[in-house]
Amino acid sequence: MQVIQGDVLKCDLPYFDICVANIPYQISSPLTFKLLSHRPIFRCAVIMFQREFAMRLVAQPGDTLYCRLSVNVQLLSRVSHLLKVGRNNFRPPPKVDSSVVRIEPRKPLPPVSFKEWDGLVRICFNRKNKTLGSLFKQKRVLELLEKNYKTMQSLQLAQDPETGEEKMSPDDVALLANMVEDLSMETSDEKEDDDMEMDDSDAADGRASFKEKIMGILQQGDFAEKRSSKLSQVDFLYLLSLFNKAGIHFS
Ligand SMILES: C[S@@+](CC[C@H](N)C(=O)[O-])C[C@H]1O[C@@H](n2cnc3c(N)ncnc32)[C@H](O)[C@@H]1O
């Protein structure tokens, strides 16, 4: 047996196939994504988390705690709740309850670029109870997508629907380890709604047709009136494929 002493977030992990851990809860998110980006990928992890974090990991569409953390972790793995561990199992009792969760990485990973995926779900979960139609009408979102669209066109890198989508590479997944800071336990719906929808004056500067293009894609998949809080992994993958086929990219 090899014992490694050090900060698990900073040290290079060796090959392992099973991870069993009782962790400090403040590293839940970075550790989860560090494990999921580790290669070769492990077989199974059984980890105790703070109850609310655990419930976010396993939350399904329609559950109150369903969020970006849920869709990102579930894109990469199957997660199941194994056991509740109440605070009174400890002396002295901590302030929070715990749960033990099993994480089994998907093999193979879904055929999607994680950068693209993350770009899409960031927009969709910015306000998970708003309709996608209303989220994608925001000036900030349209400007970002149009900028990406023009860049891709000028570089002639727009994906040809016949040649297929980019695939998720191990390097791509490794990005996960660096994007965990805002996958916290706060609900983004509590944020101030400071985004402007594009109004008529914006139409004058030529963005109207791009907005129509985006709305057309949403309507094509019957997404305009839907809300992220109710959409499954398959829905998001389908939506991403519709956008990519139309030359709209999120990274
Ligand atoms: C919840 S305790 C679990 C202790 C022991 N494994 C057990 O099950 O009784 C978490 C342990 O992780 C250690 N720890 C905290 N941050 C760490 C980090 N970044 N890397 C490695 N260990 C860490 C703490 O010092 C503490 O001993």
In short, what is this structure?
This protein has helices at 28-37, 51-58, 68-76, 114-124, 132-135, 139-155, 170-174, 200-220, 233-245, and strands spanning 18-22, 44-50, 77-85, 98-105. The chain has 251 residues and is of the alpha+beta class.
Task: Write out key terms for the chains shown.
KsgA/Erm; rRNA adenine N(6)-methyltransferase; RNA binding; binds S-adenosylmethionine; four-stranded mixed β-sheet; RNA-binding; SAM-dependent_MTases_sf
Describe the structure.
With 251 residues, the chain is an alpha+beta fold. The protein is 39% helix and 12% strand. It has nine helices and four strands; from the N terminus they run E-H-E-H-H-E-E-H-H-H-H-H-H. The protein has helices at 28-37, 51-58, 68-76, 114-124, 132-135, 139-155, 170-174, 200-220, 233-245, and strands at 18-22, 44-50, 77-85, 98-105. Strands 1-2-4-3 form a four-stranded mixed beta sheet. Strand 1, helix 1 and strand 2 form a beta-alpha-beta unit. The chain is elongated. Mean pLDDT is 86; it is low at 186-190. S-adenosylmethionine binds next to loops. The site of S-adenosylmethionine (SAM) has 7 residues, from loops. Belongs to the class I-like SAM-binding methyltransferase superfamily. rRNA adenine N(6)-methyltransferase family. Residues 185-203 have a biased composition (Acidic residues).
